[in-house]
């Protein structure tokens, strides 16, 4: 039994329009899941017994455009970060937000219950050797995993298939390590699924979607959409009937290439698998604070099924 959280940065539920690459580009696996629809707001709702797409509020009652640091902090903690910080905060978290995440997050919450949550992404040693700045180079996801007892996955883990690179195929890693072989998104899905068998929860973070949206890079966003669709399709093919996949994002961006900035669109929470463990979930007014409690409930249900 496995619960997998796929965090994909900067993907909102946009329009069925020419400026939305999640609509215009080929996503056969997403469309198969969503009754022929692409990943847009039109697809929101239930699709068969095991597919549910929830429109997810990323504003969280705070004025302004949702941003990465506070959106991710909310996902990884289950608490309203922009409300606690007094504003939406972008990029890497400043010390105050970073320490807020380090005090309480999904990894620590699982540890207290005797459960295992792990981060599938791998790092290079150079990542941790970059010179410190006032804000720092540590992302929310990195701050969260570093606060736990769970080991951080490094390059040897990646090469052994015990980790997944942020871009899935390792193509960006080749710029620094030319001898690294690229893999297919299907292989990345296989590696992630294998990691998931050894934990109650595994999390993967993909952020090229947000980068491509900011750059308005049509070639890159085409690669992102089609690669991620292949990855998701293979992961769904591999999952067992008791496994659950949850996909979500921190804010909108890449679904509207008319501007380089983030959007105010809601984001997706796509739940793939049996929803027996969601009996206590209140699906109305769904927002990013609901993601962590959902993961707790899904894992608790799986634990109950084992007893």
UniProtKB/TrEMBL annotation:
Gene3D superfamilies: Alkaline Phosphatase, subunit A. Keywords: Isomerase, Manganese, Metal-binding. One of its GO terms (molecular function) is phosphopentomutase activity. GO terms for cellular component: cytosol. SUPFAM superfamilies: Alkaline phosphatase-like. Residues 200-297 form the Metalloenzyme domain. It comes from the Bacteria. One of its GO terms (biological process) is metabolic compound salvage. It holds the Pfam family Metalloenzyme. PANTHER family: PHOSPHOPENTOMUTASE. Belongs to the phosphopentomutase family. This is Metalloenzyme superfamily protein. It comes from Thermoflavimicrobium dichotomicum. The lineage of its organism: Bacteria, Bacillati, Bacillota, Bacilli, Bacillales.
């Amino acid at each position: 039994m496995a619960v997998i959280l796929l965090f994909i940065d900067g993907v909102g539920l946009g329009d069925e329009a020419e400026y939305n690459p999640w609509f215009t580009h080929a996503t056969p696996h997403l469309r198969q899941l969503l009754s022929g629809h692409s990943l847009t707001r039109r697809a929101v709702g239930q699709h068969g017994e095991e597919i549910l797409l929830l429109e997810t509020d990323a504003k969280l009652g705070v004025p302004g455009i949702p941003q990465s640091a506070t959106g991710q902090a909310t996902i990884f903690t289950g608490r309203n970060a922009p409300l606690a910080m007094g504003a939406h905060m972008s990029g890497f978290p400043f010390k105050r937000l970073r320490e807020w995440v380090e005090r309480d997050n999904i990894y620590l919450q699982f540890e207290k219950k005797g459960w295992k949550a792990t981060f599938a992404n791998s790092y290079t040693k150079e990542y941790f050797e970059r010179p410190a700045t006032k804000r720092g180079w540590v992302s929310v996801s990195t701050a969260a995993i570093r606060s736990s007892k769970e080991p951080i996955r490094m390059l040897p883990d990646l090469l052994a298939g015990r980790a997944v690179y942020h871009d899935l195929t390792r193509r960006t890693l080749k710029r620094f390590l030319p001898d690294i072989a690229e893999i297919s998104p299907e292989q990345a899905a296989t590696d992630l699924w294998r990691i998931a068998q050894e934990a109650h929860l595994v999390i993967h973070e993909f952020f090229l979607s947000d980068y491509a949206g900011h750059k308005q890079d049509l070639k890159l966003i085409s690669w992102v959409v089609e690669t991620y669709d292949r990855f998701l399709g293979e992961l769904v093919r591999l999952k067992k009937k008791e496994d659950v996949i949850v996909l979500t994002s921190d804010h909108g961006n890449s679904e509207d290439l008319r501007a380089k900035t983030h959007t105010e669109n809601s984001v997706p929470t796509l739940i793939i698998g049996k929803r027996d463990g969601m009996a206590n979930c209140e699906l109305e007014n769904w927002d990013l604070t609901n993601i962590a409690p959902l993961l707790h409930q899904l894992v608790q249900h799986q634990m109950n099924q084992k007893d």
